[in-house]
Amino acid sequence: MKEYLTWFLDEFDYPEFSKKSLLDCYEKIAKCDTTYPLVCQMLDEYERDINFNPDDFIPKMQRIAQTLNISNYTVDLLVLILMTKHLKKVYEREGVNEEIWRTGVMDLKYKDTECTLIHGVSGTFVTWWFYRFLNFTRFAFHKLQFQIVPFKGEYDKDGLSLREGDSVIEVHIPRTGTRLDRESLLLSYKCASEFFQSRFNQRPVFVCASWLLYPENKNMLKPGSNLLAFMNDYDIIRWENYENYDQRWRLFDTMEEDIDRLPSDTSFRRSYIERMRNGLPLGWGYGVLDYDKLNN
Predict the structure, then answer these.
(1) Does residue 21 belong to any structural domain of this protein?
(2) What is the pLDDT of residues 11-20, one digit of tens each?
(3) Could you tell me the residue range of the domain that residue 162 belongs to?
(4) Angle between helix 58-68 and helix 35-48 axes, rounded to 10 deg
(5) Most buried by CB count within 10 Å: which residue of 49, 112, 157, 241?
């Protein structure tokens, strides 16, 4: 396990802080007669059935963290990384290009970056998010991630008709730390469209539920911005306000509660700060994108 962990951290260029934290975490687990068997049990269970019940793993991860006095975030990330070894074999067995596996497991590094920025430790505080990758039901192409989900609501527009429960492809925008440029977006949609049509016979209709699709964002983004272009691809059919500002970390990379101490290095962040100062809500939106009409 240590050999794979070391390879993985080097191969995906984790920062030295994370490498040390995760390797130290592994060493402590490996030396403990209580914690090492728990890790082995989780890995064995995953190898027996990739459609494992994540609820069975959470108590074991918590027990490891408590026993060794290590952050639960670090333990969770370590276990998820170790599981990617078998996930790679699943991709090979299913005849899916290794590059898609590589793009998918990069999400763990993105989550590690978020955790380090927000909580000051290497790890992940959204462990549940990676389960669909491990279940071989979420796939990543270039800048975006995709999974088949049931449609929520009803939709009739421009020849596209959707009903509650119809299968559609949900889009997630990971925090890659790079620009969401137009070329990469179109390539992501193209690859996902071809993959889901050929493998699952799924028509290329995309939906996205995200804070990035909150309609008020259009008033805060500069014309020509990449995020605005992303928003404009979607027909936003539903949106809601958040009850509070708990989701601000998605834009600011911090859980800082003092508005005056939030980073204001971009115009979008400054606009959000001004909105919060005025007591105005933040929120999210749900939109539809028909890929066949994207370039028309």
Answers:
(1) yes
(2) 999 999 999 9
(3) 139-242+281-293
(4) 160
(5) 112
